[in-house]
Amino acid sequence: MIEKDSVTLYPEKVFPFDKAPGHNEVINITPVVKWIRSPLPLSLDHINCYLLKDGDGWCVVDTGMNVKVTRDHWLGIIESHLQGAPITKVIVTHQHPDHVGLAGWLCENNRAKLLMSEQEYLCSRVYMNHGQADDYWEVDQFFERSAMSAHTLEGLAKSNSFYDSVYALPASYHELKDGKSIQIGDYTWEPILTRGHAQAHVSLYCKVLDLYISGDQVLPRITSNVSVISSAPESSPLTDWYDAHDIVGERVPDSVLVLPAHEMPFYGLHQRLRDVIEHHDERLERVLEICETPENAQSITTALFEKEFDSFQNYLAVGECLAHIHRLMEQGKVTRKLHDNVYLYQRG
Ligand SMILES: [Zn+2]
Fold it and tell me: Ligand 1 centre and the CA of 133: distance in Å?
């Protein structure tokens, strides 16, 4: 029997919570699922983390980055709200530093188990040793052929690397496999593995609670970055991203309350899935229009977004633009040719 909780009081509202948890605050989604918000030192200034009742303790889902303000926030939450109950497990949806950053620290300090998909765990371990943009001929070639602006390259060279914002990962982990349900306390959660935003992003669906912890797979207003990255220059992540939306739509019912990693919990999963795909369909059309004349990835990005980016945002924007171009190339709608070591793309 599920206890009545705050969510069932507002089934008709798309966003059932008026405000997010503030510093050292916890909001009960249900009596067995708590919501906290970790501060991030980024333009996106927060990540939602969730606590799932696990016997006498709590299982953490996503953690925030390894910075003092976020570690202090966790210490405050543990002291004020968990009242001595242990952290039993740490689930990380994917290897981006805002999600995995403090997993090692929480696991080490609480002797908690780490649960991740295999690819996300191994990627995190690899990135601890090597940045994504380490000197390598093919990485250099990727930047050159994308015609990425000089200020982007200078900024990336100076930017913090993965290991500056991620605490060392535990030397062991427990693998989350697609569709292989896990038990957390009294409830069963089904991991759903998807590609596009990351290599094997995990979101979690609980049928009995009618909840879906979506990570970055589904966000209510902003769209997750889907990028061709320098370590996989010929990949087509947008095709994976389209597939991911089909997978989530088939396996998670529209009735769920979505608990995303950023912004606010919401109802209306299936409409949001359709809206995101429509957004990418429109962007594909716009890229096609821009490519009436031969253009490079940087010039298409500038025309597409029509705004100034800082160096890291420009890196992501060019990566996202390339994700659209590569999908159009797969569909035979855009061709590519090398001119003075820069790729030019054109419709046709
Ligand atoms: Zn992410």
Answer: 18
39 Cβ contact list (under 8 Å, min separation 6) = 23, 45, 46, 64, 69, 70, 73
% of the chain beyond a pLDDT of 70? 93
Give 8 Cα–ligand 1 centroid separation in angstroms.
29
- Asked if pLDDT for residue 155 goes beyond 60, the answer is yes
What are the tens digits of pLDDT across the range 61-89? 999 999 999 999 999 999 999 988 999 99
- Taking only the tens place, the pLDDT of each residue in 277-297 is 999 999 999 999 999 999 999
Query: What residues does each domain of the chain span?
Result: 7-347
Helices 150-158 and 311-330 pack at an angle, to 10 degrees, of 120
Is residue 258 within 8 A of residue 216, CB to CB? The reply is: no
pTM of the model: 0.93
Between the CA of 346 and the centroid of ligand 1 the distance, in Å, is 31
Let me know: does 218 contact 246? Beta carbons within 8 Å: no
Q: State the distance from the centre of ligand 1 to the C-alpha of 56, rounded, in angstroms.
A: 30
Helices of type H across 33-182: 68-81, 97-100, 103-110, 118-129, 137-146, 150-158, 162-165
CATH of 7-347, one of 3.60.15.10, 3.80.10.10, 3.20.20.370, 3.30.360.10: 3.60.15.10
**pLDDT grade, residue 130 (50/70/90)?**
low
Q: Taking 70 as the threshold, does the pLDDT of residue 170 lie above it?
A: yes
Contact between residue 241 and residue 256 where contact means Cβ atoms under 8 Å apart: no
H/E element, 243: helix 237-251
Radius of gyration of the chain (CA): 21
Instruction: Please give the distance, rounded to the nearest whole angstrom, from the Cα atom of residue 27 to the centre of ligand 1.
Output: 23
